[in-house]
Amino acid sequence: QSNQKLLIFVSSGRVFTLNPNELPSGKSNPKSYIYFIETESNEKLVSIIVPEENKNCLLISLNGKGFITDTNSLISNQKKGKKLFNLKISDILIKVLIVNEKYIAITNKSGKLLIFDINSLPILQKGSGVQLMKLKKNESISDIKLLDRSEGLIWHSSSKIKKLNDITFWIGKRAQSVKKVPKYFNKNFKFE
Fold first, then answer.
1. pLDDT digits (tens, 9 = 90+) for 48-75
2. Model pTM?
3. How many other C-beta atoms are found inside a 10 Å radius of the C-beta of residue 175?
4. Is the N or C terminus of the chain more exposed, i.e. has fewer CB atoms within 10 Å?
5. For residue 71, which of 86, 59, 87 has the smallest C-alpha distance?
């Protein structure tokens, strides 16, 4: 709806609020979102979300940090945005997901997987988050998805969709040591 704001998340951990009424309408020439917010040249677009009451989102960084935040509290009138995720120099925001399931599945680039309860994450207005997955030096997160434990784990491998019903082996506590991904898992260690 035209009175709903849009939240634009960029890789530096900042979030911008955009009023859809400012966007070009009809068949006019489209403009990049960069025209409407003051972003740095090295910041990449990560996600766009419509904020709502009681709607939380999960922020995840490349180095495995993360936290949950309330989307409604992110609305701001500042053109330069709001610093939301305090990231180290070598880290970037890689994913923003709407919290709609109880479990988080997370893979790293070394082919390890960990699944844990989302309730073990803090809800913060802003911050540097907590460690989601134990990573060795120079390791980083490959992908993350939210899931319902009763539905098992689903992933895409080449053109096939694979499903694993019993995920008990990979369920653990946040930031504990991780286990190798299931057999026939995607070679990029991504779920999609």
1. 999 998 999 999 999 999 999 999 999 9
2. 0.91
3. 16
4. N
5. 59
Angstrom distances, CA of residue 19 to CA of 15, 28, 63, 73, 143: 13, 17, 32, 16, 30
Query: Measuring CA to CA, how many Å separate 8 from each of 43, 47, 155, 159?
Result: 11, 6, 27, 31
Residue-level pLDDT at 167: 95
Phi, psi of 170 (to 5 degrees): -95, -5
**Among candidate residues 83, 85, 39, the one with its CA nearest the CA of residue 62:** 85
Burial (CB < 10 A; 0-12, 13-18, 19+), residue 16, is buried
Closest of 89, 60, 72, 81 to residue 18, by C-alpha: 81
At 39 the pLDDT is 78
The two tokens of residue 65 are 């940090």
Tokens standing for residue 170: 């990979």
Residues of the chain with pLDDT under 70: 1-3, 26-28, 30-36
- CB within 8 A of 86, min separation 6: which ones? 13, 126, 127, 128
